[in-house]
Amino acid sequence: MPVYGVIDMGSNAIKLKIARCEPPGLIETLCDEREAVRVGAGVFRGKPIPRETVHAIVDVLARFKKLFESHEVERFRAVATSAMREAPNRHALIQEIQERTGITLEVISGSEEARLIQVGTSLDVNAARGSVLFIDIGGGSCELSVREDGELKELCSLALGAVRLTENFISTDPISAAEHRKLKDYVYSELRNNVGTLARRSYELAIGTAGTINAICESILEQREKYASSTPSAVRYTAISDFHRRMRELPLDERKALPALNSNRADIIVAGAAVLKYVLKMFHVSAIRPSKRGLRDGVLLDLLLRNAQDARLEQEFHRARRDSLVQFGDRFNVPRAHTNHVTKLALSLFDQMRESHKLGESERGLLEAAGLLHEVGRAVNYGSMHKHSYYIIKNAELTGFTQDEIAVVANIARYHRRSEPSPRHENFSTLSPRQRAVVRWLAGILRVADGLDRHHDARVRDVKVKVSPKAITLDLDNEYEAELEIWSSQRKAKLLSEIAERRVEYHEKSAPERKIPAQRSA
């Protein structure tokens, strides 16, 4: 079995897991480590991560890298969540981590975090039918997801992390009635504004993950004389409500002495318990099952899916990712037939030009995403569609993509028409040199493909590519005459011609003019 590794840099700790993994979901843990580094301290009030914390992060990651080497890990991913999503100095920190440890840190979106948590935790509930609610309370955010009859249905990431709420709402010890009221009002406001439809469902089971929920449940179960009727598979809402009330009344020193709470958790447990209580109350859930699985297990399984030799698993991963892209595009009423066909043509061009661009499957996936979403901006304004597409995609939480990947997808969509990539454009200049090269190639391909469907009727059914030292020749398989398609594509081919260092030529197949029915008079 292959040995994979994962690093989870959260807001309250940095964690590692190394495991042997085998399809469809066998995980044999070889090493499990946790270092209490509060990455999110101050971040949720707009402050950068301080230098002393940066040094601690680098030291921990360097040690984790040695653990990967000693366990002969084949592949690993290092992901960062809420604190790094919001840290003003995240780009400099990511670069420093890369330079000093050789680890590439991926900052994942909130919805991708929720998806991976659900994937990992589902190992414990594969047989569960009906609707299952997954709740993960981290330091910076709370992730909710819904699985129905084995299929992922909904994802939601909320700014309800225990560290975030503690820093922004709690300054008294024990918490004062006024501060608790403000905390409660904020939690309910976030829930009402974001999970209304989810809360109206009925759930067969609720699963709780991450350190905060597990600490609450373990503390309750170790004090059963105070919290009756709870079991390891069903910690009752009434017990959690009583635990929350007690945490509000105890000062920090007494909270630290409680079972399952430590100095790194006791100061944020009041906020964490409040979130758990109010989520369960709003969702009308009577009990929760704590799970030790979570984000790291999801990342391990995701690594397994991405690198599996099992074609079924690989297809499942790509199907889920594409389905989420289609659903996102439908929210903005994109012309689905057109974007699907442009994507098909773009991927065909990509596949036939591999010797020229030398990009891989990862970049192919970015081109597919940009192809499917390049017209989301038309929902705002057609004339500036490309610019609006950039902003919509850049701020989206796309399932299966890291924030860096989303930035590349957004830039490809930005340059599918009108101006070409330029260092004068802030959205392009902030990318790394490698990312800028990828955007130029993929945007160049997408521009040509988009032009070949100028009529939005798929009259250019396919294209065959011949690459010579001086030219890229496109032989069109056109059902009808494609003069307008060739004109439109030629106008947009300059970028591809420049980066490929070849002119772009078109050969049209002789075909009849398409007859368009005359408009009837009223």
Question: What's the gist of this structure?
Answer:
This protein is an alpha/beta fold. The protein has helices at residues 51-70, 82-86, 90-101, 110-121, 162-169, 177-194, 196-199, 210-221, 237-249, 252-256, 269-282, 295-307, 311-331, 336-352, 354-357, 361-373, 385-394, 403-414, 426-429, 433-451, 483-491, 494-500; strands at residues 3-9, 14-22, 26-35, 75-80, 105-107, 131-137, 142-148, 151-158, 205-209, 235-236, 287-290, 460-467, 471-478, 503-507. The strands form three sheets. It has a six-stranded mixed β-sheet with strand order 8-7-6-9-11-10, sandwiched between helices.
Question: Could you list some keywords that capture this structure?
Answer:
single chain; 522 residues; alpha/beta; Nucleotidyltransferase, domain 5; Hypothetical protein af1432; 3 domains; six-stranded mixed β-sheet; five-stranded mixed β-sheet; 22 helices; 14 strands; 48% helix; elongated; disordered C terminus
General description of the model:
This protein has 522 residues and is of the alpha/beta class. It folds into 3 domains: 3-108 and 296-303, 2-Layer Sandwich (Nucleotidyltransferase, domain 5); 112-295, Nucleotidyltransferase, domain 5 (2-Layer Sandwich), CATH 3.30.420; 317-507, Hypothetical protein af1432 (Orthogonal Bundle). The chain has helices at 51-70, 82-86, 90-101, 110-121, 162-169, 177-194, 196-199, 210-221, 237-249, 252-256, 269-282, 295-307, 311-331, 336-352, 354-357, 361-373, 385-394, 403-414, 426-429, 433-451, 483-491, 494-500, and strands at residues 3-9, 14-22, 26-35, 75-80, 105-107, 131-137, 142-148, 151-158, 205-209, 235-236, 287-290, 460-467, 471-478, 503-507. A 6-stranded mixed β-sheet has the order 8-7-6-9-11-10, sandwiched between helices. A 5-stranded mixed β-sheet has the order 3-2-1-4-5, sandwiched between helices. Strands 12-13-14 form a 3-stranded mixed β-sheet. The protein starts with a strand and ends in a 15-residue tail after the last strand. The model is unreliable at 518-522 (pLDDT under 50).
